[in-house]
Amino acid sequence: MRRTAEPYKIKAVEPLTMLNRGEREEALKRAGYNTFLLDSEDVYIDLLTDSGTNAMSDKQWGALMMGDEAYAGSKSWYKLERAVQDLFGYDYVIPTHQGRGAENLLSQMKIQPGDYIPGNMYFTTTRAHQEMNGGTFVDVIIDEAHDPSAELDFKGNVDLVKLEELIDEVGADKIPYVCVAVTVNMAGGQPVSLANLKETYTLCQEHGIDVMFDATRCVENAYFIQEREEGQQNRPIKDIVRDMFKFSDGCTMSGKKDPLVNIGGFLAMNDFELYTRARELVVVYEGMPSYGGMAGRDMEAMAQGMYESIDDAYIEHRIKQVRYLGEQLMEAGVPVVRPIGGHAVYLDAKAFLSHLDREMFPSQSLAAALYLDSGVRSMERGIVSAGRNKETCEHNVPKLEMVRLTIPRRVYTNSHMDVVADSVINLYNKREQIKGLSMDYEPPTLRFFNARFSPLKSTLIANEA
Ligand SMILES: *Cc1c(COP(=O)(O)O)cnc(C)c1O
């Protein structure tokens, strides 16, 4: 097989630092064993998130200088608005400071207390906004999405039977919209097929229910469609993206992911009445409908970034770099979520640290151990991220217990991926030595951001030599 390389060359470099093991140990202690609380200057390779960590192109840096910082009617806003209309096909666009700003507006406008919002698995901020507005999230993703070893081309698909059952049970008037994420972050960056998007949209239309995309990773989703769905192989990504969005009534978007910028977002829709309300509401929370919390230069960079994101060579390399890391780990027998998704490799911490029980926070423990081993920062996506049940106050125990190695777009080379693979494999080979954690401080909402931990004293190893 012929090897491929990054479809860009490096014009500016940012030196990396690497602390020694003793310094990393100190840094980890200061951070309460929570990788969210590490200082970035203490991190060597930062795979915490692909959110806002994108590297911009020379054209985007150039575009920053073209930002029109007018308070109203900025040229840069019109450029962004036209890019969204052109690439996604929506009529109306509302800018926001980032994705959750759009989620806030959408949830406030559409959700009444007692409503249900079905989705193909939850996302943290999305669900938080739904709940704060009195709604209840209902998971309607296919069962296989909860099984880390199930090999499926489109593991993010909506289960139409589950969705139809919910509609029958609570009634369509209690469902303001279905939220379809493309790809599904929490399932491991798994895609939704074009066929499933169409079926979901058709079912919702029959019941008069809107479909709102969480479009955060829609270009990555389009790549999987091009790669895997019948009849899509020779079509440009741009056309596939356009086709996907035909099966929706609107979307929320985080500019910090696929649009290749560091901050920004938007809400888009075809319904003029909803748009009119959003124009009122955005002023209260974000800013004028012609900037929504972004600087003119941010909007310029995002418009440019959106066009770069649908470049076929770019997106192919993006997906394949993630897969390059994932395949090295699989070859070494490390348990990972399969198939490798669009933006991250997810370690299956339940299998990796099978000697720890769930209340010892295996994913959190593994993320801490990885930082200690090599200065690589990853993220917990398991019992800590899932929070507690509103009624019982017990931990929500998600089926998946994962550590996410998230690859920033255009930032690291495949050599960095090799370093990460070596470290994970090293840990896997001595996994019995990794201890669990106890939670010393627990914030009431989105606890994973600020929780603090300390190592359990006993090693809980059954047969340590
Ligand atoms: C990041 C993300 C969001 C929220 O976007 P922000 O820009 O971080 O507010 C929503 N949904 C998904 C799937 C995301 O990955």
TrEMBL record:
Coiled coil: none annotated. Its EC number is 4.1.99.2. Its cofactor is pyridoxal 5'-phosphate. Gene3D superfamilies: Aspartate Aminotransferase, domain 1, Type I PLP-dependent aspartate aminotransferase-like (Major domain). The keyword Nucleus does not apply. The modification N6-(pyridoxal phosphate)lysine is found at K257. Residues 46-422 form the Aromatic amino acid beta-eliminating lyase/threonine aldolase domain. Homotetramer. Belongs to the beta-eliminating lyase family. This is Tyrosine phenol-lyase. It comes from the Bacteria. GO terms for molecular function: tyrosine phenol-lyase activity. It catalyses: L-tyrosine + H2O = phenol + pyruvate + NH4(+). Keywords: Lyase, Pyridoxal phosphate.
